[in-house]
Specification:
Length: about 350
């Protein structure tokens, strides 16, 4: 199937494009009234994730409103720990929780051997259905959480402000932590390769909590395992390369070592200047980002000005995918998203002459 708009994939590979492509983390989500209606129809968040038809519907909803250059699979980063038997559930206002946690080295050793491709077939079924419904309009992004990020949730039992349990486990039981991370890396490889086989045309690894680590711990306990994943992924499908994006929130200080992981692009949050990032990584990788999501609460003129500033900061040439520096938040006015997306396309043409 011919891809009608491939500028997102081309930009990730630092190939020429007409305008800077744009998509948005959490672009299918609570800021859209149609998403909230579909979630209510599903009954709860996990039921929505596990229903391929409804997951497809919410994936496509933002593309009906906005001129995004990519769709991203609607799912959750914690599907792998759930498949490992930890019992994922969601509490309104409190986020994800697990019924079982990793508390001792023995708990790591007792984790079951599970085929992610088979246990998470509802995800790959959704990928196949989304690809069919997209009909070649834009590429589809698959994703997973990073091993370190998944491990923090598995040990903490949910979100955390200080990650003291996860960090204590890492320092007290480094061998067990490495075993857990290695198992998770293998699971992520299995999971992402299944998504690619089902039709994902690029993949992103979300290292949401890598930025809480020291530089040494980051390289040993996070980046090492993301590099293992990159090396184990399917490199090409349907005659095209499958680009890989690494996104470590608060990871701007480690861009040089991240660029050596074998990935094609690095996601930036809003705490890193994109021009400085480009100088540091050169032509090694593309860059994705990095507008502060809170700008979307501002007036349209301010949104357009910030888009213009970031594009100018990156400058002329290829290798930029515009995105927020983290996911969009639920209270954003949907009209402001259109302002954002349209401004990226309008202002970026001059940088791709």
């Amino acid at each position: 199937m011919t891809l009608k708009n491939d500028r997102f994939l081309r930009a990730l590979l630092r190939e020429p494009v007409d305008v800077t492509p744009v998509w948005m983390m959490r672009q299918a989500g609570r800021y859209l009234p149609e998403y909230r209606a579909t979630r209510e129809q599903a009954g709860d968040f996990m039921s929505l994730c596990q229903n391929p038809e409804l997951a497809c519907e919410v994936t496509l909803q933002p593309l009906r409103r906005y001129d995004f250059d990519a769709a991203i699979l609607f799912s959750d980063i914690l599907t792998i720990p759930d498949a490992l038997g930890l019992g994922l559930y969601f509490v309104t206002g409190e986020g994800p929780q697990f019924r079982k946690v990793i508390a001792t080295p023995a708990d790591v050793e007792q984790l079951p051997e599970v085929s992610m491709a088979s246990e998470l077939s509802y995800v790959t079924d959704a990928v196949s259905l989304i690809r069919k419904e997209l009909n070649g309009s834009v590429p589809l992004i698959g994703f997973s959480g990073s091993p370190w990020t998944l491990a923090t949730y598995m040990i903490e039992g949910g979100g955390s402000k200080d990650f003291r349990r996860a960090k204590a486990f890492m320092y007290n039981h480094p061998e067990a932590m490495h075993l857990l991370l290695d198992r998770l890396a293998s699971a992520v490889i299995d999971y992402l390769n299944a998504q690619i086989a089902a039709g994902a045309q690029a993949v992103q690894i979300f290292d949401t909590w890598g930025g809480i680590l020291t530089p040494t711990a980051y390289e040993q306990f996070s980046l090492h395992y993301m590099s293992k994943i990159v090396s184990g992924l399917t490199k090409e499908n349907e005659g095209r390369k499958i680009p890989v994006i690494l996104f470590t929130k608060n990871g701007g200080q480690w861009l040089e070592v991240m660029a050596q992981s074998g990935c094609d692009a690095l996601g930036l949050d809003w705490t890193t200047d994109i021009g400085n990032a480009r100088e540091r990584v050169g032509n090694k990788v593309a860059l994705q980002g990095n507008m502060d999501p809170s700008i979307l609460y501002a007036e349209p003129a301010a949104i357009r000005a910030e888009v213009d500033r970031i594009l100018a900061g990156f400058g002329s040439g290829e290798g930029h995918v515009f995105n927020l520096g983290h996911g969009i938040t639920p209270e954003v006015n949907p009209d402001h998203v259109k302002t954002f997306v349209d401004a990226v396309h309008e202002f970026s043409a001059q940088y791709h002459a």
